[in-house]
């Protein structure tokens, strides 16, 4: 190994950076606590000595911080409140934390005052069974995909407990993980969407907003928080383009942030708009201007829409139309279904329109929607090959008499 200019950071013969340090003495075992790693908390290898040093400082800071409360009888509840949840908040986007916060608190409350070191394999297995059981049998009643997410978050919390030297091993790893299963998001077909918009009276200003919002989500496939962040500056009427470069983080209608990024780097994109959508937007823009709204497209009073309001709007008009309700993100899936089933759009085109990092991501989520496209191909194949066979055989048999007969 070779030293770098950063104390505690080294580079090995393969030019891989790593840190190595002593944190102190375990108050329980009396052993020296040593920490060495070639990866950060997300499992990514260090690409520079500085990156390894930043992680080393973070580990030391977290270790010394928790020493104020560390003791043999530390409860899971105390660990979550003082260590894990605050650390998780610093590692993810604000929008992610706001979504996951309640889940983390539910996990915390499940084990509550149980000492961290007293959690047993039986406790973990019981929790896993509860997550997968339906409500009639006293379980959580979660879908497999969500149960998998919750159980995975619980296991990660114990991973950190091991890193912080509260535990020697993560006992939850001895219990089988919960498979994600298949998560099919409900969506609306073209006929169903037509039934929905047929129940909206756009003479009413608020209902006009509802119509524009549902139409935009269905016809563009933008994510919910991408749509909520749209300003009129994002619409290029002359070139028929929609710029999707922002996402909205909302805590309430009056407490929000319009972030200059999207869920992923590839989420920043420009979408081509059809003439119907442009015409609908022009009418709505004029109507908003009459009452002094000039920024948010989805607004009736100058303030942005929030997810819960969007969900209620979807539920209301689904009920009016007599069709099944969907989640707000179901409108994004509806757009994908619309393009695939009505226009047999290619994977590459859909991937770019949806803001996916690769066509593989698109196939992962929407491959099942292309099943109907096979029928149209089969119809086009009919009659495309001229069928004409020979009047007599050209084969001269000299051996197998059974075949010859």
A few lines on this structure:
46% of the residues lie in helices and 10% in strands.
What descriptors fit this protein?
405 residues; alpha+beta; 4-stranded antiparallel beta sheet; 15 helices; DNA-binding; Tyrosine_recombinase_XerCD; DNA integration
Can you describe this structure?
By secondary structure, this protein is of the alpha+beta class. The chain folds into three domains: 1-68, no CATH class; 92-183, no CATH class; 190-377, hpI Integrase, Chain A (Orthogonal Bundle). The chain has 15 helices and nine strands. It has helices at 49-66, 76-91, 94-111, 121-132, 144-163, 190-197, 205-220, 224-228, 275-290, 307-321, 330-343, 347-354, 359-366, 373-381, 401-404, and strands at residues 2-3, 9-11, 17-25, 32-37, 235-236, 241-244, 247-252, 255-259, 269-272. The chain starts with a strand and ends with a helix.
